[in-house]
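Quick illustration, no need to memorize.
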Amino acid sequence: MRRRILLLIIFTCTLALPTRAQIPQPNSAIENDPLHRTQSPSAAACTTDASSSCAEVAAKILPRILGPSPLQENLRRLTDEIGGRVTGTPAMERAVQWAISAFRAAGVDVHTEKYQLPLTWTEGNTHLELLSEVKFPLRTVSLGWSPATPPGGIEANIVDIAYGTPQDFTAAGPQLKGAILLVHTDLGTTWTDLFNEYFRPPEIIDRALKAGAAAILWEGARERLLLYRHTNTSDGQLEKIPQAIIAREDALRLSRTVLAYPGKIRARFSMPNKIGPPIDQENVVAEIRGYEKPDESVILGAHLDSWDLGTGALDNGCNAALVIEAARALKATGLRPRRTIRFILFSGEEQGLLGSWAYVKTHRAELDKIRAVIIFDSGIGRVTGYSLGGRADIAPAVREVLKPLDSWDANRHTTDAQTGTDHFDFLLEGLPTLVANQEEANYLPNYHAASDTLDKVDIRELKLNTTIAALTAWGLADRPTPLGKRLSRAELETLMKESGLDQQMKSMGFWQAWENGTRGRQP
């Protein structure tokens, strides 16, 4: 409510911003530089002094973003017309063309960069049928990147393995061999619950493989029969065992039935997924060139791909549209920052951050000149600040950049480090990273689900978040000095231990790639 009230008073505040900031007279050399500012020139950058180009830029982008804009129509075309965008599919190709057209319409230079997806994946006609005397429908969808079941499906007993702990597997004993396992989950209502959806499965999958199980059914973490999907892989490779998600209420009913008739509930599980060969995919890269240090850059990014049960509006179509809108608004000001601002829409995020990983590998020789990476990936919840990837040293500068928006209460930053989105491989290379911390809003109930559709997007909130994103990118690019240094591998290892990132990486299957040098900064 407070933020919506702010929306009503923003336009009256906008005109006052430059006056309050007391922007000084510009340096004549920069004023006469035709590559710098084409209107309202100012040499001031984002510093501890209130005289800041951030205030000037905030005043110029506020009416452009909060007023009439192509943001909503861009997002409608992406979600309603293109729909779910699984990497490697024709829908993803159409999404790339959508992004190129939108950047060009904004007057921003744009190109694409290719990388190879290890395989393509499409769900077949997933079907789970009870064969015992007790029968009822079981609504089921394949886990992303799950292998197909053998021709004709799997016919086996269903074993309720509870939460899949070592004790649960020990208690189940020899009945696990050749069985279809039913694994329980907690209802997902918090960010911690969501992280556990990814942290728990790898160890359970390993136990299932060792026990000789034939397949895994995961109890859905959403209520009201809502189906969704994601993957448990971290490198774009196929899962090691057939896996599906069963609607929560159906899973609970199945569990009660299995417990009432121990060893007697048998099912046929058919999941003829289609697996294809490696294929080229693309990241979409646009930029506003810096006037003083164009070879240095600040990245503002989001992932363009989504899952396909819904239309990928909250995850992450709204933030793909946000990145394009931030570029449009900044370009329209006619101002140019010291460094280049690069706007990147990554693909392959849902399969293991593949697009951003590929970008890091392709641009490894340039990483010393990437000054910051800013990522938005949590729907339209109110931004409270940024997660700074374990870097307390960069917090003061980020607060300075956002000072013109102090009344928005978006300057409460955290120094945690996380694995979950496209900043990750940049973080592993020692670069300063900022991931938007956002309130949950309606993100978790619709996460990766059939209900993730355009009607869930609050456009007013999205516009406010766009303003924060644009100002952050500008401010970090226009600072006289870089945001923070690039960390060495030794410094990164210390950061990992202090932040607990090492344990996250082990749980998510990233640790071996770090240890063997496949991912991350070299010694």
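The longest strand covers residues 293-303.
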